[in-house]
Design goal:
single chain; mainly beta; SH3 type barrels; 5-stranded antiparallel beta sheet; about 40% strand; disordered N terminus
């Protein structure tokens, strides 16, 4: 399937019996019909008609697709309804000629090797110097990064390549970066008269002076070569000046309610580490600040009261106004927490990949951190990342064996879960902090969104159009969604006849072997499903022995949609009934397996008339180690003489096949 670039220009066309060069179309495009046309649900005339066009009616073409017959069809939208029409009915007229845009004025870019700051929280860095490239990471507000390359497009848009981490670099718009740190501070002039200069050095011209007590609005800061801070001051007339830190002080709004920001915040009897410890404050507990004090060691302490009324002193930098103010970083695999800020210090603990730790401070390229278990120490900043490494990146579509897929790469093999929501929505979660989304239109999918869940975590929400459902696979390096139309036709089913060969399974009172009963039922089910358009594979079609791992390998290496293992139960001669089993504790597709089990058990009981033993969760190997939605069906009890006879009956097998087929139809007809 060809990919097309979206265009804001709509072109007009009239319906003629002429072919269209699909590769030249830029979507969306406007068309006008010259006769009545039927619009189908899919890209062949075998799909049902969803609406029609009358002569002179305008529609918008939003996609193109070539089906297995080699016909090119266009997807259109009319009054909110979407459908497909064969391309031979359309002809596109050339778009109107437009004057090229005037390129913006080119401004000087920061030099390679210099440092800049992100002016945007969550600023995406991309693989190339264009918004069309996939994101490789993101910058938080005021993140300091080095410029490693620069590029200016023909339109005048400038991009800078920056180093996010030692191993990750990417391109960001130059307009989103600055050589200054962005702030929003209220400053009070403390000198009798303070100079406001044209730039952040003592050599810059004095533009005006501010008397003692003047209130200034600082919007950025820059550190000079000696480490001193210059503040950029915004005036009411829109001009900017600079003032040095020594002649101003920060105006602080006193917030009495704070949260404990670490696992080891201690309450002391006085404002120094030399005082007695009264208690360890619980992480994220709420306390009331009564006053603040800076001691002779330049440590700022807060006099606080706990929820139980106990008062004492805690270090101010271990308290935050909001839980969102706690600064975290994420570690690479086997990053070392040391007792000091150097490799010469002893290791205290080794951290896992993507482990989240609280940042307490920084010294000479080392971060003072606290782990979730309360261990404090120092980590080399080069072995950390400010953003989580749990990301879904580089989304792409593909057609495999005639099936449409949309895939995302995982940054490593982390666990993923999913849930089915109302409104034909699929929600995929995995503590993602970054999810790249597709801009192209995919038949059967209405929208793809990355939505906030909690804190910095996001979830992937895929909304399907009516008449479509999915099969989801989770691999070590990617997740893959197969977009499929509802209904049984075209669905790929694996049928597993339990036991076989040297493994006879249970033996009935008259000597009838379970392996034969299972194979007979599997052959009957295969014939029944194929009559209704399903594609069926048997794990065994003869009396051969297969290991359980061989059966699941057939499923896990396939592109199929469901797995059904057929068995005959055995306990007492009086035991009776049918049971369907599934697994959610291990099987990634547990949610779909449970839905499949419920649908088939309901129809199977109605068709067979056996006692309903219900749907049960079990850790049978063929379900537990299966990547597909999978179930195991116990058709009846071979240990019961009456049900043994039923299991050997072709009529009973046919009824079982009908019930399971109807259950599969229900499963694939519902999202």
């Amino acid at each position: 399937m060809k990919k097309f670039i979206a265009s804001s220009v709509l072109t007009t066309a009239v319906l003629f019996p002429a072919l269209v060069n699909a590769e030249e179309i830029h979507f969306p495009a406007s068309y006008t019909s010259s006769k009545n046309i039927e619009i189908h649900k899919g890209a062949t005339t075998s799909y049902p008609v969803v609406t029609s066009l009358t002569s002179g009616q305008k529609v918008t073409v939003i996609d193109t697709f070539t089906n297995t017959a080699g016909e090119t069809w266009y997807r259109i939208e009319k009054d909110g309804t979407k459908g497909w029409v064969i391309s031979s009915s359309l002809e596109e007229t050339p778009p109107p000629v437009q004057n090229p845009p005037t390129p913006p004025a080119i401004t000087p870019l920061p030099s390679i090797g210099t440092y800049v700051y992100s002016q945007v929280n969550g600023l995406e860095a991309r693989r190339g110097a264009s918004a069309f490239y996939a994101a490789v990471g993101s910058l938080y507000s005021n993140q300091k990064v080095m410029v490693t390359d620069q590029f200016t497009a023909a339109t005048g848009e400038a991009w800078l390549k920056v180093q996010l981490t030692p191993s990750i670099s990417g391109w960001v718009p130059a307009a989103s970066l600055s050589e200054f740190e962005t702030i929003n501070l209220t400053l009070i002039v403390t000198a009798d008269s303070a100079n406001l200069r044209s730039g952040p050095t003592m050599q810059d011209n004095i533009m005006r002076t501010a008397p003692k007590g003047s209130v200034l609005n600082a919007v950025a800061l820059k550190r000079d070569l000696d480490g001193g801070i210059w503040y950029k001051i915004a005036s009411s007339d829109g001009t900017f000046t600079w003032i040095y830190e020594s002649v101003v002080t920060k105006q602080v709004d006193f917030v009495p309610t704070k949260y404990v920001a670490t696992h080891n915040t201690l309450l002391y009897s006085g404002a120094s580490l030399g005082y007695n410890v009264k208690l360890k404050l619980p992480y994220l507990s709420k306390i009331t600040v009564l006053k603040e004090f800076t001691n002779s060691l330049n440590q700022t302490w807060a006099n606080v009261k706990t929820s139980t009324g106990l008062t004492g002193w805690a270090l101010k930098n271990e308290l935050v106004t909001s839980k969102n103010d706690i600064q975290f970083t994420h570690t690479f695999n086997k990053a070392v927490v040391r007792s000091g800020a150097s490799i010469k210090y002893a290791a205290k603990v080794y951290l896992k990949e993507n482990e989240s730790v609280i940042v307490l401070g920084e010294l000479n390229g080392w971060l003072n951190v606290e782990t979730s278990s309360g261990v404090r120490g120092w980590v080399d900043k080069l072995y950390t990342s400010p953003v989580s490494m749990k990301r879904l990146i580089a989304p792409y579509t593909e057609v495999v064996n005639g099936d449409q897929y949309v895939n995302w790469k995982k940054t490593y093999n982390y666990p993923v879960k999913y849930a089915v929501l109302s409104g034909n929505r699929l929600k995929i979660t995995g503590s993602f902090t970054d999810i790249e989304t597709l801009g192209e239109i995919i038949p059967g999918i209405q929208s793809i969104e990355a939505v906030p869940v909690s804190g910095s975590e996001k979830a992937l929400i895929v909304t399907f159009e009516q008449g479509y459902t999915f099969t989801l696979r989770n691999a070590k390096d990617k997740i893959s969604i197969k977009v499929i139309a509802t209904g049984l036709a075209g669905k790929k089913i694996i049928i597993d006849a339990g036991h076989g060969g040297k493994d006879t399974g249970a033996i009935g009172p008259s000597g009838y072997l379970e392996k034969n009963a299972n194979l007979g039922a599997a052959l009957a089910l295969k014939a029944e499903l194929e009559k209704f358009g399903a594609i069926v594979t048997l794990t065994r079609s003869t009396d051969v022995f297969l290991e359980l791992s061989e059966r699941t390998y057939i499923a896990n290496s396939s592109d199929y949609d469901a797995f059904i293992s057929l068995h005959s139960d055995s306990y007492k001669t009086t035991s009776t009934g049918s049971t369907t089993y599934y697994n959610t504790s291990v099987n990634f597709n547990g949610p779909r397996s449970k839905g499949l089990a419920n649908a088939i058990q309901h129809r199977l009981i109605a068709s067979l008339g056996t006692y309903d033993r219900g749907v049960q969760e079990q850790e049978f190997y063929v379900n537990r180690m299966n990547e597909l939605p999978s179930i195991l069906v116990e058709l009846a009890y071979i240990s019961n003489p009456s049900e043994e006879k039923l299991l050997s009956s072709p009529a009973f097998r046919q009824k079982a096949a009908i019930g399971i087929r109807q259950g599969l139809e229900d499963y694939f007809n519902n999202f």
